[in-house]
Amino acid sequence: MQETTAEAQRPWLAHYPPGVPQSIDETSRDTIVDLFRNSATFFRDRPAAESFGVRVTYGALHKHAEEIAIGLQQLGLVKGDRVAIMMPNVMAYPALIFGTLMAGCVVVNVNPLYTARELTHQLNDSGARVLFVLENFAHTVEEAMPELLTEMAVIVSPGDLLGAKGVVVNFVSRWIKRNVPGFNLPATVRFPAFLRFARHWKLQRVEITADNPAFLQYTGGTTGLAKGAVLLHRNIVANVAQCEAWLRAGAGERPDHVMITALPLYHILALTACCLFVIKIGGCQVLIVNPRDLPTFIKTIKSVRMTMIVVVNTLANALASRTDLKDVDFSQLSFCISGGMATQAAVARKWKDATGHPIIEGYGLSETSPVVSVNRLDITEFTGSIGYPMPSTDVSIRAPDGSVLPIGTSGELCVKGPQVMSGYWQQPEETQRAFTADGYFRTGDIGIIDPDGSLRIVDRIKDMIIVSGFNVYPNEVEDVLASHPKVAEAAVVGIPDAYSGEAVSAYVVPRTPDLTVEELRLWCRENLTGYKVPRRFEFRETLPKTNVGKILRRELREHPPEKTGA
User: Fold this and answer.
1) What percent of the chain has pLDDT over 90?
2) Residue 290: φ, ψ to 5°
3) According to the CATH classification, is domain 6-13+392-460 in 2.30.38.10?
4) Are strands 394-398 and 388-389 parallel, antiparallel or unpaired?
5) What one-character-per-residue DSSP string does 357-418 give?
6) What is the DSSP string of 489-558?
7) pTM
8) Tens digit of pLDDT for each residue in 539-550?
9) Helix-then-strand count for the chain, H and E
10) pLDDT tens across 455-489, in order?
11) 112 vs 54: CA distance, rounded Å
12) Where in the chain is the domain with CATH 3.30.300.30?
């Protein structure tokens, strides 16, 4: 007879690091606004964020956030209204997050590289009333404007909220772009003008509870269209508390913690593990606006003594391959966390050789706020596992019928905990499918619980493709390909790629013989964000299918194309 005790069912608890509790206070009714206001009070004069070499204190960040909240209220927004933010990591971003939440509104994070089609779906589906967009990406908004239901766009510049240095940053940015679009968009206002709404008004306090939505974090769906995971204030606050319980002891108590925030804040990993976690402990986050600009990136991190950094596999690989990384001071580094995609062992070795520190791999999803599990901080070598479940987190491995499988058996990894979303935005059927009968979230990933309670991911049930830590959903890419008039059928799978982890590979049955690869690639670039565009194409007369007509992606993955076209 199988053991049913908590220790037998949760073997990871016996392997927690010293000082890490088995649970957090799940009765807390704090909101993200409470978390932010507490830190702004306790750490008022500490630096909260740095951008382009300029640091802003907690007190100043709170002032900016309050001005944004007043501005939203003067626009007529009320509790529960959605506000979209479409920009990379500039100083205005964290201020907009907290200002939106202080107004009682819900943040909708938007990838600034989205095409007009993708942007239109996310804004209209969320019902976002206002969009804050960096001026460099306003051309996408201009293209989407005829279909958008959003009432107003606020144009932000890279140097906004940076004082005198910001004027220089904005001048240089506009000179490089020469002709920044967005000035002639209908129903728009510049960010400084928007902030002037707050000059003669006071913030009207909004009663925000832990059960109110804080974020609509969009992720892919079976229909090929992204769906919004509804993350409540209590979900996010719980995950921040879980991260603090796991990481703080290893990071040490110090007033000068510096987190390198290189992953974009619209990505759930950076949002929680970088921005909100660092705010909670009173650290400073260095905002990297473009991590692909490696020379500038390294120049920036050379100028600070970082204590924490969060990466994805591709970023760690790119940094570790640079010879000038040797000039970066890693002596104060408490930990390097990796998530978003599987970390390759070769990259982990390269990173440790270059920095002297191991990569600490973790696991999470948009629907779990995101952190589910993390390795111990005291490991000396890369383990290849995704670590142990966080405090107050329960996991189980399930068979297709939902029954619990024993330790050491592979099956679908399912999660229950205070960080798990309340559901998908306005999609009750998708929400029901996402949970087991006893309330566990189905991750769609095939995992194994090892005897010590650590988790390993061995495969994915879903056909999701992860390109440099970003999710690509085959249905969406297939829909774009199928909309080309010369395409009869299309199937998309992920294939291994040394740089991005996986690459998108497309198999196409042409409708007419004159279809070319370049024609298809251009079509995809016009309708998809860059990382979703197939890297390889192969033309075929037929696609493998089941007897009911479902395309067998598995067979395509097992026989990847060897060239870009046929």
Assistant:
1) 77
2) -145, 90
3) yes
4) unpaired
5) --EEEEEE-GGGSSEEEE--TT-SS--SS-BEEPTT-EEEEE-TTSPBPPTT--EEEEEEST
6) EEEEEEEEETTTEEEEEEEEEESSTT--HHHHHHHHHHHS-GGGS-SEEEE-S---B-TTS-B-HHHHHH
7) 0.88
8) 999 988 755 456
9) 18, 26
10) 998 767 777 888 998 888 887 898 899 889 999 88
11) 23
12) 465-558
Q: Which parts of 145-229 fold into alpha helices (H)?
A: 163-177, 191-195
- Residue 118 near residue 158 (C-beta atoms within 8 A): no
Torsion angle, CA of 114/120/126/129, rounded to 10 degrees? 110
At 171, the pLDDT band (50, 70, 90 cuts) reads low
Which residue, chain included where needed, has tokens 């003594």?
Answer: 305
As a whole number of angstroms, the distance between CA 217 and CA 229 comes to 5
What type of residue sits at position 292?
R
Q: What sign results for the dihedral spanned by CA atoms 237, 242, 243, 248?
A: positive
pLDDT at 564: 42
> Does domain 57-208 sit in CATH 3.40.50.980?
yes
377's tokens: 């901080």
pLDDT band for position 1 (50/70/90)? very low
Q: Which CATH architecture has domain 465-558?
A: 2-Layer Sandwich (3.30)
Cis previous bond, 295, omega within 30? no
Given a cut of 90, whether residue 216 has pLDDT beyond it is yes
Average pLDDT over residues 362-376: 97
Q: Locate 148 and state its tokens.
A: 């958008």
Taking alpha carbons only, the member of 289, 297, 286 closest to residue 321 is 297
At residue 112, the 3 state secondary structure works out as coil
Give the pLDDT band of residue 2 (cuts 50, 70, 90): very low
Q: Give yes or no for residue 174 having a pLDDT over 70.
A: no
